[in-house]
Amino acid sequence: MAKVLFIDDRLDEVIRQWQSSGCASNHELLPLEPFDSIERTCQMVNTFEPDVILIGYGLGKPDITGADVIRSLHEGGYSGY
Fold it and tell me: What is the pLDDT of residue 64?
């Protein structure tokens, strides 16, 4: 069973996609909260140690994209998917 963490600002869309995908029967959805900051995301990754992270590109912050989050996670040593 993989632990999956979603990083996005549209939680209702994340929940809808998760429920319709069928993933819930084989994987664990980690706690959801709206994207706040790269620092908070790194903290969540360190706490929950997800196997898979799905990151939206537009995160509701005009100066931060999903690419910025991925870059920070890699710089911090995250090597998952």
Answer: 95
> With contact defined as beta carbons under 8 Å apart, do 17 and 67 qualify?
no
CA-nearest of 45, 32, 33, 35 to 73 is 45
One DSSP character per residue, 4-47 reads EEEE-S-HHHHHHHHHHHTGGGTEEEPPP-----HHHHHHHHHH
Q: What is the pLDDT of residues 19-41, one digit of tens each?
A: 888 888 899 899 888 999 999 99
pTM score over 0.70: yes
What separation in angstroms does the CA of 58 have from each of 19, 32, 41, 67, 78?
22, 17, 15, 9, 21
Q: Which two tokens stand for residue 69?
A: 């989050």
